[in-house]
Amino acid sequence: MNDPLNSLDKILEASATEPPGADPAQRFEMLPPYVSPTLQRIGARRRPEPSTHCEVCPASLWFATPSEVRCFCRVMHSFTWTAEEPTAIVDCDGEVEANLERLAQFEEP
């Protein structure tokens, strides 16, 4: 039986030998950092604690009412953070996908 993690390791090793700039994630450094405008506007005490990866993800849709703050993920089509269920996502492929879209817009002539 094939071990999927072993296959992933082989793919990662092969990608490490690609020429510089071949990996789009390396080009993300060209992009200005994304921080949710909603989270920038609300008070620090209403922001997620502990922090969640969604705070810097362009695919996240944060919204606030006078009584609550929530995050909806446009990739997973679900709420990823609420004050009632404060899930601390530490990494997500959706953020990579969203930044690839941003990168394509940024690199357009």
Short description:
This protein is an alpha+beta fold. The protein contains 4 helices and 3 strands; from the N terminus they run αααβββα. The mean pLDDT is 81.
Mind explaining what this structure looks like?
With 109 residues, the protein is α+β, with helices and mostly antiparallel strands. It has one domain (21-107). The protein is built from four helices and three strands; from the N terminus they run αααβββα. Strands 1-2-3 form a three-stranded antiparallel beta sheet. Strand 2 and strand 3 (78-82) form a beta hairpin. The longest helix is centred in the C-terminal third of the chain and has 15 residues, at 93-107. The termini are far apart.
Instruction: Please outline the major beta sheet.
Output: 3 strands, antiparallel
Shape: elongated
Which segments are poorly predicted (pLDDT under 50) over 5 or more consecutive residues?
Answer: none
Tally of separate domains: 1
Average the pLDDT over all residues and give the rounded result.
Answer: 81
| Strand ordering within the main sheet | 1-2-3
What is the string of helix and strand elements? HHHEEEH
Distance between the termini: 47 Å
Question: What is the radius of gyration?
Answer: 17 Å
Task: Work out the strand percent.
Answer: 5-15%
Helix content: 25-40%
Structural class, judged by helices and strands? alpha+beta
Number of helices: 4
Q: How many strand units?
A: 3
